[in-house]
Design a protein that fits this description.
The chain has 178 residues and is an alpha+beta fold. It is built from four helices and eight strands, in the order ββββαβαββααβ. A hairpin with a 2-residue loop joins strand 2 and strand 3. The chain starts with a strand and ends with a strand.
Length: 178
């Protein structure tokens, strides 16, 4: 799961000399002659990476892709990033007030039957289900509201907050690949 920030860097004939951008692509110390700098329109930064944070995937698909999960790149407006930040801050408040409880979850199966483990989860699952629900599916990982979920929420808050200074200057895109 990736969040990209795209920087528009196209130079036009009417671009003033002091506003022109210079781009050089190198491999080691050698300039790549096969890439023409004057043709580069965008530079893309990968600013976010997650593994199996299915609640984030669920939110982005529902809020930014009209529920269409086709693994294509999805535009995420700065307004949606700010809405996501607000949602995640609410989730963090709920988790910070919660207590933990132990639950038994299936971890696999064998010829002897299913295997289970006891794990700790937060006791606020109904609130979290309303605010920022997990989503089950192939390669989606756990749907439990546990420390992994909390860590992903905190990581994503930090990432969005680090973008706040220039959030309106760039285009953001999300893409998942499994």
């Amino acid at each position: 799961m990736y969040l990209y920030k795209k920087h528009y860097v196209q130079n036009w004939e009417h671009t003033k000399p002091e506003a022109r951008r210079t781009i050089t692509i190198k491999k080691g110390n050698d300039v790549r002659e096969d890439i023409k700098p004057e043709r580069i329109a965008c530079v893309t930064e990968q600013i976010g990476y997650w593994r199996k944070f299915n609640a984030l995937h669920n939110w982005l698909i529902d809020e930014c892709a009209e529920g269409e999960d086709d693994r294509n790149e999805i535009y995420v407006s700065s307004d949606k990033l700010l809405e996501l930040l607000d949602t995640l801050k609410e989730v963090k408040k709920v988790i910070d007030k919660a207590k933990k409880k132990k639950v038994k979850v299936q971890t696999g199966w064998s010829n002897k039957g299913n295997t289970y483990a006891e794990i700790e989860v937060y006791d606020c699952d109904e609130e979290l289900e309303q605010l920022f629900p997990t989503r089950s599916g192939f390669f989606f990982g756990s749907t439990q509201y546990d420390d992994w979920y909390k860590a992903d929420v905190e990581k994503t808050i930090e990432l969005i907050e680090s973008e706040l200074v220039d959030i309106d200057k760039y285009d953001y895109y999300y893409q998942a690949s499994w």
